[in-house]
């Protein structure tokens, strides 16, 4: 089942969205990793399995707290993120080397990376055409882009109703992703941006919402720039009564693997 179509991409202009994103991750370092710990299986392991040569140079784009580092111990790995808070959390966990940089200006030589991992970041990084251009630039010919993104399709009817319950409590129709096309439409977007898509797969994970703490983590893990602290607290209280042993929330994700296509003159 597919959720209702997204509304306008975001009420925030690009400058305000980037500011919101920076504050969000600086104040919630490791939020995505902590949320994924509630899943019945590791989305990060699913993403890492898409890399054909884990011993090469891997650029972990918008790496956050860098959970992929431990899954690629033999790779020449480098984590890149714009958030000082996220990088500090990654460093605290011993996940290095790390570089603070914007995704539109990667401090990586052209055609030097065997792979780029983009975990849960392409729907929110702006401007996306520049980000994809940087990914193409740093990948060597035949290199791999492995991207993990939230999917909108794939929910069962009960799963969709559960998400409606969550968003109703938050008084939100949807998360205002600036790049909603980089979700279920990511494969088509990559093709139009100079990539050849090798695979496009969807998998539905299940988040355990069996405690009030897990519900609170879910609320904190959503991108809702207009959500007030009072509304967030009210939603956590209301959804805490919903949490119980065995409660699960479906989380559809999409894994797209692609490689850059050489254009004339490249």
Oligomer classification:
single chain
Numbering strands along the chain, what is their spatial order in the largest sheet? 3-2-1-4-5-7-6
Query: How does the overall form come out from the CA principal axes?
Result: globular
The proportion of residues forming helix, as a percent range, comes to 25-40%
Number of helices: 9
- The residue-averaged pLDDT reads 93
Characterise this structure.
A seven-stranded mixed β-sheet has the order 3-2-1-4-5-7-6, sandwiched between helices. The N terminus is likely disordered. It has 266 residues and is α/β, with parallel strands linked by helices. The protein is built from nine helices and seven strands; from the N terminus they run αααββαββαβααβααβ.
Task: Give me some keywords for this one.
7-stranded mixed beta sheet; 7 strands; about 270 residues; disordered N terminus; alpha/beta
SSE map:
Layout: H1 14-27, H2 31-36, H3 43-48, E1 57-61, E2 76-81, H4 84-92, E3 98-100, E4 113-119, H5 128-138, E5 139-150, H6 157-170, H7 186-191, E6 195-208, H8 212-220, H9 229-240, E7 248-260
Parallel strand pairs: 1-2, 1-4, 2-3, 4-5
Antiparallel strand pairs: 5-7, 6-7
Helix pairs in contact: 8-9
């Amino acid at each position: 089942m597919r959720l209702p179509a997204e509304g306008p991409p975001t009420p925030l202009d690009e400058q305000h969205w980037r500011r919101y994103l920076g504050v969000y991750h600086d104040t919630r370092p490791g939020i995505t990793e902590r949320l994924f710990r509630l899943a019945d299986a590791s989305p990060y392991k699913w993403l890492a399995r898409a890399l054909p040569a884990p011993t090469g140079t891997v650029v972990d784009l918008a790496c956050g707290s860098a959970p992929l580092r431990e899954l690629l111990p033999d790779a020449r790995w480098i984590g890149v993120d714009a958030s000082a808070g996220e990088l500090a959390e990654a460093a605290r966990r011993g996940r290095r080397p790390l570089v603070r940089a914007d995704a539109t200006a990667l401090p990586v030589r052209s055609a030097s990376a065997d792979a780029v991992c983009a975990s849960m970041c392409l729907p929110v990084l702006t401007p996306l055409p520049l980000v994809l251009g940087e990914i193409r630039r740093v990948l060597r010919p035949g290199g791999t882009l492995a991207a993990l993104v939230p999917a909108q399709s794939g929910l069962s009817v009960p799963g969709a109703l559960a998400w409606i319950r969550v968003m109703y409590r938050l008084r939100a129709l949807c998360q205002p992703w600036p790049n909603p096309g980089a979700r279920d439409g990511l494969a088509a977007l990559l093709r139009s941006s100079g990539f050849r898509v090798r695979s496009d797969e969807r998998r539905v994970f299940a988040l355990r919402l069996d405690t009030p703490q897990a519900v609170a983590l879910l609320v904190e893990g959503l991108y809702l720039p207009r959500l007030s602290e009072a509304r967030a607290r009210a939603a956590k209280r209301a959804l805490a009564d919903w949490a119980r042993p065995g409660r699960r929330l479906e989380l559809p994700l999409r894994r797209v693997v692609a490689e850059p296509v050489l254009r004339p003159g490249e």
